[in-house]
Amino acid sequence: MRAKRVKIKAKGRIFEGIALPSEEGKIVLKLDSGYNVGFYDYEVIEEKEMEITYPETECRIREDKLPEIKVISTGGTIASKVDYSTGAVTSQFSAEEIVSDIPELAEICRIDAELLYNILSENMKPEYWVKLARRVYEAVKEGYEGVIVTHGTDTMHYSASALAFMLRSPVPVVFVGAQRSSDRPSSDAAVNMICSAHTSLSDLGEVAVVMHASTSDDFCYIHRGVKVRKNHTSRRDAFQSVNYPPLGRVWPDGRIEWIGDRVNRGERNLELFDRLEEKVALVKFYPGLSPDILDFFYEKGFRGFVLEGTGLGHVSTDWVETVKRVAEDSLVVMTSQCLWGRVCDRVYDTGRYLLKAGVIEGEDMLPEVALIKTMWLLGNFELEEAKRLVRENLVGEINYRTDFG
Asked: Which residue spans within 225-353 are E strands per DSSP?
């Protein structure tokens, strides 16, 4: 691949790297450190054409007795490389490309990889969750020891939650991503993927998310798919379990230390419940927000509402009459903006009014998880049964006891 190496002077310093495509009058360099810098005011000192080659890594897709796992890519940055002709990071999807980038995987398992779709995670939609759930279901039926789903980090906890409700799996279904792309020296992609491979072969029988546990490359946490959230924009340890401990710790050498109670491998029979009601709204309350927002969605045909209320689960008292009217033929679930802790609408008057109006407490569910659960309940059950099941712990999304320690 042809590229141009450029040395420039800008801001009183010398910078040198590969020139990336940029707008007219601006230069963007990929530095040897892996980071990009851009300048409008600069002086070119030297430039030369060069051929970019990636290091040759022995790629061994083994045919021996190692267990085989399925890797399904949805467009994440795992095993990605920079295309210097465009400046973009592109994901590699074949088994050969994945093992070439992360050769340690060849010592752990055999990989059968496929691209399901290639999207930015903010473009994820419920219809894509359904397609993904069906493909994972088929992969488990085909006999793979485990399934890894590579995914963009921004909405990975939504997708993991969706699959946790739609799919009952006797083998691990592991979501993994990378906070920093593979071309950067600080990338977390390789360690996350290696730890995910070990987790996919472990004694686990549920949907999990595996990501860095700290800012170092020491170990990863295994998070329950319905108890995890991305809590930082860029840190490598951005993913945290909320209101429940991580299921375990996993090291790149394959050691696993289980922490929380989990569903074991083979404990569940394979089942698929792939219907979702898309007309469900997640509404974040803030001081002064008018209840007209509920009427807007209601008139658009929405019959599921998750309210992200304050503290123990409150919205202002001028919402009560609107909530009462909407809740007559809708499912209205209350969660909290606080994330940690649980909803309890029996402490203050407003909460009691909301309960009387028909609001159902979301216990200690994350708002995003309550959204997915409401979509799933309304897609698979009649309204009254869905209302009953909101407060039932179905896949580990609810703890009936809160630890205040």
From this structure: 228-230, 239-241, 248-250, 256-258, 271-272, 280-284, 304-309, 331-336
Task: Give me the active site residues, please.
Answer: 77, 153-154, 230
CB neighbours of residue 235 within 10 Å: 15
Q: What pLDDT, in 10s, does the model give residues 66-123? A: 999 999 988 766 545 655 555 555 555 555 667 667 888 989 999 998 888 888 888 8
* Token couple for 270: 């394979």
Please give the model's pTM, rounded to 2 decimal places.
0.84
Q: How far is CA 160 from CA 227, 330, 403, in A?
A: 10, 25, 24
Coil/strand/helix, residue 15: strand
For residue 160 the two structure tokens come to: 């993991």
Q: Which domains are seen in the chain, by residue range? A: 2-51 (2.30.30.520), 68-272 (3.40.50.1170), 280-389 (3.40.50.40)
Tell me the HSE value of 113 on the side-chain side, using a 13 A CA sphere: 23
pLDDT in tens, 38-73: 889 999 999 888 765 544 444 444 456 899 999 998
